[in-house]
Design brief:
Layout: H1 2-14, H2 17-26, H3 41-53, E1 57-62, H4 70-90, E2 94-98, H5 109-126, E3 130-132, H6 140-153, E4 158-163, H7 169-175, E5 181-184, H8 199-215, E6 220-223, H9 227-240, E7 247-252, H10 257-265, E8 270-276, H11 281-290, H12 295-303
Parallel strand pairs: 1-2, 1-8, 2-3, 3-4, 4-5, 5-6, 6-7, 7-8
Helix pairs in contact: 1-11, 4-5, 7-8, 8-9
């Protein structure tokens, strides 16, 4: 009952532009530093280095919200390019995740595409990889169209995310056979016209598309904190003779650290999603919405001041 009240509240707060602007001035408060790896590229690189020392690999994401101008989109693009250069310079094992709206998708499609082309071109030159995060349903087809255009020039340097709660997920996975995909359950609130509403239906479809992509021989990133799903994937891959080199598990920075390290000890690739930047507020509120028990992060953060 508490979670039913808190979830919509935190999602509402995540979209508050006034609080978001204030959060940029506050610095990492309310326990956010437990799930956000600092505000600068150097902060992110230090965190990734510490993860690498434990056998974990990473993907970093420079957080951004409410991009409404060409200037903001270009600034974000340049920051992504500098992040890729920092990864190369420091030698950490890490790639880059980003959102297309942060690069101007809602401003102008061609602006976003050209920004992405610069970023993915840099990743190609440096031998790295860029993951396009999937956003809400309204941006889904646009994201896949831009991915298709980028792969014509950089086929192995860019991939995306498919969300299992969408009815179209299985068809999209089929169309993207051979593409490095991150598979997730999905975190946005979508209507019944386009998405499963029941948790069991989402879980069943999630396992189904994981098996579908693995069976096709495609590299698969399974992004979940659900240990039951993880165990089922392990069993499936053992039964099917699927090599550990064909897939990886992914989790968020700051969550289920013991499980992350256990997965590494078992010989699997474990990639940690590491967000950073001054624009941390919206991300943090969404994490609280997903798991209201994470409110303890905020309480501990406030009490420690």
């Amino acid at each position: 009952m508490v979670s039913m009240v808190l979830k919509p509240m935190f999602l509402y707060l995540s979209k508050n532009k006034v609080l978001n602007r204030g959060a940029k001035r506050w610095g990492l408060k309310m326990g956010a530093k437990q799930v956000v790896a600092g505000v600068t590229i150097d902060d992110a690189m230090r965190t990734v280095s510490e993860l690498n020392e434990k056998g974990l690999v990473a993907t970093v994401d420079h957080l951004g919200e409410f991009i409404t101008s060409r200037e903001e989109a270009i600034e974000s693009t340049n920051y992504c390019i500098e992040t890729l250069k920092a990864i190369s310079k420091t030698g950490v094992t890490c790639n880059l995740s980003l959102k297309l709206t942060q690069l101007g998708l809602d401003v102008e499609r061609e602006l976003c595409y050209e920004n992405m082309r610069k970023i993915v071109g840099t990743a190609y030159e440096l031998g790295n990889f860029v993951r396009i995060d999937m956003e809400d349903y309204a941006h889904c087809q646009q994201t896949l169209d831009i991915l298709a255009d980028l792969r014509k020039e950089f086929p192995n340097s860019v991939g995306t995310v498919i969300q299992a709660y969408l009815y179209r997920a299985a068809e999209d996975v089929s169309d993207l056979q051979g593409v490095n995909l991150r598979l997730v359950k999905g975190a946005y609130k979508e209507p019944s016209e386009v998405a499963f509403q029941d948790k069991k239906d989402v879980d069943d479809n999630y396992l189904s598309i994981i098996k579908q992509h693995l069976r096709s021989g495609s590299y698969t990133a399974i992004a979940t904190h659900d240990h039951m799903i993880i165990d089922k994937v392990k069993s499936f891959c053992e039964e099917e003779g699927i090599a550990k080199s064909q897939f990886e598990f992914q989790m968020l920075y700051g969550f289920r650290k013991e499980l992350q390290e256990q997965i590494v000890k078992e010989g699997y690739t474990m990639r940690v999603y590491v967000p950073y930047g001054t624009d941390w507020y919206g991300y943090f509120m969404r994490r609280l919405a997903e798991r209201p028990q994470n409110v303890s992060f905020a309480i501990r953060g406030l009490l420690s001041k």
